[in-house]
Amino acid sequence: MTPSQQNDCRRMDELVEHIEGRQAEVGVIGLGYVGLPLAMLFAEKGFRVLGFDTDQSKVERLNAGESYIAHIPEERLKPVVGTGRLSATADFARLAEPDAILICVPTPLTPQREPDLSCVRDTAASIAAALRAGQLVVLESTTWPGTTREVVNPILEGGGLRCGEHFFLAYSPEREDPGNPKFSAGNIPKVVGGMTPDCTKVAAALYGAVVPQIVQVSSPEVAEATKQLENIFRAVNVGLVNELKILFHRMGISIWEVIDAASTKPFGFMRFTPGPGLGGHCLPIDPHYLTWRARQFDVPTRFIELAGEINTSMPSYVVGRLVEEMNKEGKCLKGSRILLLGMAYKPDVDDLRESPALRFIELLTEQGAIVSYNDPHIPRLHHTRRYAFDLSSEELTPHVLSSADCVLVVTDHRAYDWDFIVEHAKLILDTRNATKRVSRHREKLRLA
Question: Rounded to two decimals, what is the model's pTM?
C-alpha cells in the first residue's frame, strides 16, 4: 500500500470512528420539510448538528427553538436546541466545520418543465469553497441519475481535492413523507450509493447510526434511479385511477366503490386513490427529471409522460365538474361564491408546494368566481414559485358555509367535521370521498 493509500484509509477509519462514537459533527444544508426532520434525527441520536439555510428567518426561529413546520412540534425541537446539539446558521463559510455535510435543497423545474439544478450547483460551490480533507458529502435532493457524478463531483473537485482520496461523496435519496404518523426519517430504510466503495462505507456508517436499515447499492446512479422509480411508480398509478375515475363517472359507476371492492383482493392489487391533482415536491416534479434525462439517451418515456398529462389535467376536470353540477342547480360559475376546503397538498400538513388548490383558485377566478378558502393548517397563503394570492383562511362557521354556492373539498384534513360541513353547505363537490360516512343530507353531495 502506497503512502497515499495509507492516508486515504486513515481518513476513512478516523471518520467512521468519529461517527460511531458520536463525535462527528453533521451539517445539513436546507432546513425545510426534508432537512429539518433529518437534522433533528441526528441531534436526537446524540450528534452535534449545524443546519445551514439562506433564509435568515428560519435560522433565527430554529435557534430560538421555534418550529416553522406544522407537523414538527416545538416540544420535540426545543430539547435538542436547548442542549446545543442543534443550531443553525446562514454563514456558509462555516461549512468547513462539519465532518459530514448532507444536501437537502430544492430541485424544482424551470418554466419549460426542465430540471433546475441551480440550488444544487450553488450549494456544491459553497461546499467546495470550504471543503477539507476527510469530509463526507451526501446529496439527498431528488434528481436525475448521474447528477452526483457529473454535476456535484466536478464542482467539489474544482479546488484540488479528489473524491475517494481526500473526501467522500455519496447519494442517499430522501424518503420523507410530511405528516405521516407511521413513518418518519428515523424508521425508513436508507439507500446509499457512494462514488467509491469507501464512500459508500462512510455514508452507510453515518446513516446506520440513526436508522435501522441501510441498503447499500453499487453506485450513486443506482441510488438516484431508486428514488425516481419510487416516485414514478406512484405517479403512474395515480394517473391510472384518475383516468378510470373520469371513465367510470361517465358510465355511472363510483370509482370509490370499485377501489374498495378491488382492495379486498389479498394479492396482486395495491390501492391507489384518485384526487384533484398531484401536489407536493415529489410526484408533480420528480418524474420530469427522468424524462429529461431519457431524451439524452433517445428513449421515449410514454408511461411517465402520459401519467403526467392526466394528473396535470385533473384540476381542469374538477372545475368542469363544478360547472356541470352548478348548472344543474341553475347557477352560473361567474359571480358565484366558491369555498375551497383544504389548501395543503395532503391531509394534516401546512405544505402548499405544487398544491392543486392553488390551480383551482387560478382557474375559478379566471372564470369570474369569488373564491375563498379554509385550511386549519394554513392561516394565510404565502407566495410560491408560481402563485401570489392575497387570501386568508375563513373561519368555518355555519354562515360561511351557507354563503357559498358550492363547497369544493380539496384536502381531507382530519380536523374537519364532515357532518357539520354537509349540514350547513348548499352544495358540496368532494374530490377525496371525504364525506363517504356522512349519512344525512346526502342529496347535497357530488363526487369529482
Answer: 0.91
